[in-house]
Structures are given as C-alpha cells and as structure tokens.
Design a protein that fits this description.
Blueprint: H1 4-61, E1 65-69, E2 71-74, H2 76-82, E3 88-92, E4 98-101, H3 103-106, H4 110-117, E5 128-133, E6 140-147, E7 157-163, H5 171-214, H6 232-281, H7 287-318, E8 326-329, H8 330-348, E9 351-355, E10 362-365, H9 367-383, E11 390-398, E12 401-408, H10 430-435, H11 444-454, E13 458-464, E14 468-476
Parallel strand pairs: 9-11
Antiparallel strand pairs: 1-2, 3-4, 3-7, 5-6, 6-7, 8-10, 11-12, 12-14, 13-14
Helix pairs in contact: 1-5, 6-7, 7-11, 8-9, 9-11
The structure holds adenosine-5'-diphosphate (ADP).
Adenosine-5'-diphosphate binds at residues 376, 380-381, 384, 408, 410-413, 421, 426-428, 433, 440-446, 469.
Length: 479
C-alpha cells in the first residue's frame, strides 16, 4: 500500500473487525446459553405448577385418572386446568402412556406429537431437559421431563416444552442484528480509521512540506517548527533541525573555504601572469621558449577565469554577492555584448547578429552581472558553433517580462546532457573540450543561471544535436 495513511486505515479496520467479530461471537454464545437458561426456568415453573395441581387434586379427590373410554385419561375436570398452560404439556402414566394433553399440544398434529412424546418413552422417567425437533411449523423445542410421585400410582410424570424461538431475544435475532450492523461498523471504522490516520500524520505531512521547501538548497538557514507536544513528531522535527544545523555549518565552511582559497589564489595568479607576459615581450627571451610561454599564459588565463568564477559562486552561496541594481536600458547592454560577439565571431568564422526593440527596454538590473550573463551565453554559442555558423542575440519585451535569447547553429547538446549543463564543473565531452580548441571551466552556465535567478528570472534551454541550441533568459518586470 502506497501511503502510511492507507496502511494505518487498513490495519485499524482489520483490528476493529476482529475485535467486533470476537465480541459478537462471545455475545452470541452467551446469549444462547442465557436463552436456554431462561426457557428452562420457565419450563421448571410450569412443570412445578402442574405437578402441584395434580398432587393437590389427588390429595383432595383420591383418584384423578378415569378409565371410562377404555384408555386411561386424566379426569376432564382436572385436565381442563392444564389447558390454561402457556406451553406444550403432556401428562403420562408410569408406562409413558399419554393421560392428558394441554390444548395447544393437541393442535400440534400426530407426527409432531409423536416426536414430542419421545422423551417420555425412556423409563423409568427421570427429571431431565433437552432439545427436540418436532418438525415444521414449530421446529426446535426445549423440553423438561419431570417424574411425579405424589399424585397417585396412575400418574408417572409430565413433559413441558416450548419452542426455542419463544426466547425473548434469541441468538438467531442477535445473529441477524449483528449481520446487519457489521457492514455499518466496518464502513464507519474505515472512515474513522482514515480520519484518525490522517490527523495523526498531518504533522508529518507538515514536516515533509517544510523539508521540501528547505531542500531547495538556498534555505538551509530555515528550521522546522517543533510542535510543543513533546511526542515522537516533536523529537523527529528536533532531530531534523539538528541535522540541518550541522549541514548548514558544513556547507558554510565549504563555501568559506572555496571563497578564501579562490581569493588567496588571485594574487599569485596575477603575479604569474605579469611575469609570463614580461617574459613574452622581453627581447632576450629565446624564440624556442615563446610557444611554451604562450601556452603557459593561456593556462594561467583559464585558471584566473576559474578562480574568478569560483569566487563569484562561493560568494553567491554565502549570500555575499549583492546585486548593484539600477534602472537601465537593456538595449545598451545588448549592443555592448553584440559588439564583443561580433569580434569573437570574426575570429571564429561565425557570424554574430543581434536584434532588439526600437524603444528603450527599461528594467532595474545589475548591468555588470547581466552583461556577464549574456557574454557567457554568447561566448558559449560561438565556442560550440563551427565555422560558417550563425549566432543570434535577441532582446524582446512582452507579457510583463524581458526575454534574452541566444540562438546558435552549432553542435547542439545531447538530450541526456541537458539536465546537467547548469551543474558546476560539468562539461560535455570533457576530454576533448578541455585539451582541445574549446577551453572552458564548466562554471559559466552555473553563474549564468545564478545571475538569472538572482534577478527573479529563469533560464531554459532547447537544443538538437548537430542543429544548434537556444538559451532563453526571462526576467519578470515588476508591475
Ligand atoms: P564551459 O566553460 O565548458 O563552456 P559552461 O558552464 O559554460 O562551461 O557550459 C557547460 C557545458 O554546456 C559546456 O561544456 C558544453 O558542453 C555545454 N554547452 C554550453 N553552451 C553550449 C552551446 N551553446 N552549444 C553546445 N553546448 C553548450
């Protein structure tokens, strides 16, 4: 199951269903016992009354059985009293032969009566009770056989019986009610379980949402709200906060180290460059040294660029790279970059074109950074476009935003590489470009992205290998 909430609901429902089932089963059996006890009590009462009536009558009359119709039978005057009995009643002689039947017993019909009579056939009669099925329509009956010894020699005993469905709230009723209620309980438990799981997991959801917001990498200073409950969730939030603190500390020491190291490297690199440049123009330098000095200078320049870029990114990470924002006409920046692009393009055999609106495009930006951003994109475009290709720089303004587009007809970027090109130090086909004719640091696009985002904007790229790439920076205009 996909979520903890679903799992909790499921197990809650299973637990509740098992509990209800166990409780229902126990209740069912207890109810069955109780209803048997109740019926037995009623039958005992009834048997005692009849027994007392017969004993009393015998005491008064001396003889209560007549043999007038050949078959011995209870005196009609005495048996009339038995008709009033609520339940089925049979009086038998010592041989188990019927002497009298109560009114409703007579209405049972011969087959049922025969079955009901069966317990009186086991002689001598002993007091016992049990269950007997007399067939439809009465069905199961609870009966009690009681021997009678004080109503003369002709009377052997009696049997009282009552249908089990007479029980006030019988087990069958209970079972029916339970089967009706069970689905309701089940649905209710699913709803309650789901709600309970949702409520108890809400703080976790909150922590997850906050965690997502913090995980964007620029919000490591933020902390989760620790609930005052002191429960597991509070402890979890506190633990995550502790982790964030340690993470923030190691990140900031990493940024500090990078910034410090880059800064410290700048001066020696400057000295190195000045030395190599001096050696290059010195008339005494042997001509065979010039090429290696040239290569050294190129490496020093690349290293200087990398150190500058690293310093910029480390400061940006630390939040120590503020933008010097002022309102300016972006066409000026574009014209400036286009001029540089023209020169670079000429050297590379790539034609650089540009277009922009005729009216001023005013926006509050850090001109220096925007220039750096456009230069990064344009130099990349020229760098990755073979001779004879074209690089176009466009400035547009529409839909409350300013858009810079740098389009080239160059080598393009493989679809698998696209998600990585803004990563630091990432370069496609590294071995070739590092040593070959396309030097670079792999930091340019990371800085470009940072500059676009620092202005509240975004950068996107579309590319087809062999056909060229289009980088688009969109800066929103404040309303
Ligand atoms: P680099 O210093 O290598 O140019 P970037 O961060 O500027 O570093 O670019 C990262 C990688 O993205 C480059 O190495 C290159 O593979 C790819 N890339 C950037 N711009 C283009 C482009 N216009 N055409 C093709 N590939 C490009």
């Amino acid at each position: 199951m996909a979520t903890i909430r679903l799992r909790l609901t499921f197990w809650y429902t299973v637990a509740l269903a098992v509990t209800v089932l166990a409780f229902g089963t126990a209740l069912y059996f207890e109810r069955r016992q109780a209803s048997v006890r109740e019926l037995d009590q009623r039958l005992t009462l009834e048997a005692d009354l009849a027994q007392r009536w017969l004993a009393q009558s015998f005491k008064v009359l001396g003889r209560i059985v007549t043999t007038a119709n050949l078959n011995p039978a209870l005196d009609p005057g005495i048996s009339a009293y038995l008709d009033a009995a609520r339940d089925y009643l049979i009086v038998a002689d010592t041989a188990g032969q019927l002497l009298a039947l109560s009114d409703i017993t007579r209405g049972l019909g011969a087959p049922a009566l025969e079955r009901l009579n069966a317990p009186l056939d086991t002689l001598p009669l002993t007091r016992h009770s049990g269950l007997i099925n007399v067939g439809p329509p009465v069905g199961n009956m609870r009966y009690l056989v009681a021997p009678i010894t004080n109503a003369g020699p002709a009377i052997g005993g009696l049997l009282v019986a009552t249908p089990t469905r007479q029980a006030s709230f019988g087990p069958a009723d209970l079972l029916r009610s339970m089967l009706l209620i069970a689905p309701v309980i089940l649905v209710a438990s699913i709803l309650v379980g789901n709600w309970l799981a949702g409520t108890s997991l809400r703080p976790v959801q909150g922590i997850m949402d906050e965690g997502d917001a913090i995980a964007d990498g620029t919000s490591l200073h933020r902390r989760l709200a620790v609930p005052l409950t002191g429960d597991e969730i509070a402890r979890l939030a506190a633990t995550v906060n502790g982790m964030l603190t340690r993470l923030e500390r190691s990140f900031s020491s990493l940024h500090r180290f990078t910034a410090d190291a880059s800064h410290e490297l700048k001066t020696p690199l400057m000295v190195l460059r000045a030395g190599v440049e001096r050696a290059l123009i010195h008339p005494g330098t042997p001509p065979e040294m010039l090429q290696s000095l040239d290569e050294t200078l190129a490496q020093i320049n690349q290293m200087t660029e990398m150190v500058e870029n690293l310093l910029t990114l480390a400061r940006a990470d630390e939040g120590r790279a503020p933008l010097a924002v002022e309102e300016s006409d972006l066409r000026e920046v574009v014209a400036d970059v286009a001029e540089t692009a023209g020169m670079l393009g000429e050297q590379a055999g790539v034609s650089a074109i540009h277009s922009m609106p005729e009216t001023p495009v005013r926006l509050a930006v850090d001109q220096h950074r925007i220039r750096e951003m456009l230069l990064n994109m344009v130099t990349n475009a020229i760098k990755y476009t073979p001779q004879g290709g074209t690089v176009a720089l466009n400035l547009e303004q529409a839909d409350g935003a300013v858009t810079f587009t740098v389009r080239d007809s160059g080598v393009g970027i493989a679809p698998g590489d696209l998600p990585h090109i803004f990563d630091r130090f990432w370069r496609a086909d590294q071995a070739r470009s590092r040593t070959g004719e396309r030097p670079g640091t792999g930091l340019g696009l990371a800085i470009t992205k940072w500059i676009a985002e620092a202005h509240g904007g975004s950068i996107t790229v579309q590319s087809r290998p062999g056909r060229g790439s289009t980088f688009t920076v969109r800066l929103p205009k404040p309303n």
